Amino acid sequence: MGKEIKSVLKNDGSFFLNISGRPSDPALPFDLAVMLTKNVDFNLQNTIHWIKSVSVDPEDIGRNNGFHNNDNISIGHFKPIVSDRYLSDLHEYIFHFTKNGNVKLEKLKIGVTYQDKRYR
Description:
Elements: H1 2-8, E1 15-19, H2 28-38, E2 43-51, E3 54-56, E4 73-75, E5 91-98
Antiparallel strand pairs: 1-5, 2-5, 3-4
Protein backbone atom coordinates (compact mmCIF):
# COMPACT_ATOMS: atom_id res chain seq x y z
CA MET A 1 0.00 0.00 0.00
CA GLY A 2 2.88 2.39 0.71
CA LYS A 3 4.06 2.30 -2.90
CA GLU A 4 0.56 3.19 -4.14
CA ILE A 5 0.40 6.14 -1.75
CA LYS A 6 3.80 7.37 -2.86
CA SER A 7 2.84 7.07 -6.54
CA VAL A 8 -0.10 9.49 -6.13
CA LEU A 9 1.51 11.84 -3.58
CA LYS A 10 2.63 15.21 -4.96
CA ASN A 11 6.31 16.06 -4.53
CA ASP A 12 5.40 18.65 -1.89
CA GLY A 13 2.69 16.48 -0.32
CA SER A 14 2.50 14.84 3.07
CA PHE A 15 1.31 11.43 4.25
CA PHE A 16 0.37 11.14 7.93
CA LEU A 17 0.13 7.68 9.45
CA ASN A 18 -1.59 7.45 12.83
CA ILE A 19 -0.80 4.16 14.53
CA SER A 20 -1.00 2.87 18.03
CA GLY A 21 1.11 0.07 19.37
CA ARG A 22 -0.01 -2.42 21.95
CA PRO A 23 1.64 -2.78 25.32
CA SER A 24 2.44 -6.37 24.30
CA ASP A 25 3.94 -5.22 20.94
CA PRO A 26 5.41 -1.74 21.46
CA ALA A 27 7.70 -2.00 18.42
CA LEU A 28 4.85 -2.21 15.89
CA PRO A 29 4.68 1.54 15.07
CA PHE A 30 8.45 1.69 14.62
CA ASP A 31 8.50 -1.42 12.46
CA LEU A 32 5.96 0.18 10.11
CA ALA A 33 7.87 3.47 10.03
CA VAL A 34 11.11 1.67 9.18
CA MET A 35 9.35 -0.37 6.49
CA LEU A 36 8.03 2.79 4.83
CA THR A 37 11.42 4.50 4.93
CA LYS A 38 13.48 1.49 3.82
CA ASN A 39 11.14 -0.40 1.45
CA VAL A 40 9.13 2.48 -0.01
CA ASP A 41 11.76 5.22 0.28
CA PHE A 42 9.56 7.69 2.16
CA ASN A 43 11.28 10.29 4.33
CA LEU A 44 10.13 10.37 7.94
CA GLN A 45 9.97 14.14 8.36
CA ASN A 46 8.26 14.35 11.78
CA THR A 47 7.14 12.10 14.60
CA ILE A 48 4.17 13.39 16.56
CA HIS A 49 3.09 11.94 19.90
CA TRP A 50 -0.66 12.13 20.41
CA ILE A 51 -1.16 12.02 24.17
CA LYS A 52 -4.64 10.68 24.90
CA SER A 53 -6.62 12.58 27.48
CA VAL A 54 -10.21 13.39 28.18
CA SER A 55 -11.37 16.92 27.29
CA VAL A 56 -14.57 18.34 28.70
CA ASP A 57 -16.33 21.70 28.61
CA PRO A 58 -15.81 23.66 31.86
CA GLU A 59 -19.54 23.78 32.62
CA ASP A 60 -19.63 19.98 32.56
CA ILE A 61 -17.22 19.52 35.45
CA GLY A 62 -18.96 21.66 38.05
CA ARG A 63 -16.34 23.50 40.01
CA ASN A 64 -13.44 23.55 37.62
CA ASN A 65 -10.71 24.72 39.98
CA GLY A 66 -10.35 28.18 38.44
CA PHE A 67 -9.87 27.16 34.81
CA HIS A 68 -12.55 29.51 33.46
CA ASN A 69 -10.93 30.80 30.26
CA ASN A 70 -10.18 27.57 28.38
CA ASP A 71 -12.27 26.21 25.53
CA ASN A 72 -11.97 22.82 27.18
CA ILE A 73 -9.99 21.23 29.95
CA SER A 74 -7.96 18.04 29.71
CA ILE A 75 -8.05 15.83 32.75
CA GLY A 76 -6.76 12.38 33.46
CA HIS A 77 -5.91 9.77 30.92
CA PHE A 78 -7.78 8.06 28.14
CA LYS A 79 -8.05 4.70 29.86
CA PRO A 80 -7.12 3.17 33.20
CA ILE A 81 -4.10 1.03 33.86
CA VAL A 82 -5.47 -2.52 34.08
CA SER A 83 -2.43 -4.73 33.54
CA ASP A 84 -0.01 -6.00 36.14
CA ARG A 85 2.64 -6.53 33.42
CA TYR A 86 2.34 -3.52 31.09
CA LEU A 87 1.95 0.21 31.35
CA SER A 88 -1.09 1.58 29.53
CA ASP A 89 -0.60 2.86 26.00
CA LEU A 90 -1.75 6.41 26.60
CA HIS A 91 -0.41 7.74 23.33
CA GLU A 92 -0.32 7.06 19.63
CA TYR A 93 2.31 7.89 17.08
CA ILE A 94 1.55 10.04 14.09
CA PHE A 95 4.33 9.66 11.54
CA HIS A 96 4.67 12.41 8.94
CA PHE A 97 6.13 11.04 5.72
CA THR A 98 7.14 13.01 2.63
CA LYS A 99 8.94 12.22 -0.59
CA ASN A 100 11.91 14.51 0.01
CA GLY A 101 11.89 15.35 3.74
CA ASN A 102 11.63 19.08 3.05
CA VAL A 103 7.89 19.89 3.05
CA LYS A 104 6.81 23.10 4.79
CA LEU A 105 3.91 22.85 7.22
CA GLU A 106 1.44 25.43 8.50
CA LYS A 107 1.84 24.36 12.11
CA LEU A 108 -0.97 26.47 13.53
CA LYS A 109 -3.51 24.86 11.18
CA ILE A 110 -2.91 21.31 12.37
CA GLY A 111 -3.49 19.64 15.69
CA VAL A 112 -5.20 20.94 18.79
CA THR A 113 -5.13 24.45 20.15
CA TYR A 114 -1.93 25.30 22.01
CA GLN A 115 -2.39 25.83 25.75
CA ASP A 116 0.30 28.52 25.53
CA LYS A 117 -1.65 31.53 24.21
CA ARG A 118 1.48 33.03 22.58
CA TYR A 119 1.03 30.57 19.69
CA ARG A 120 -2.66 31.10 18.89
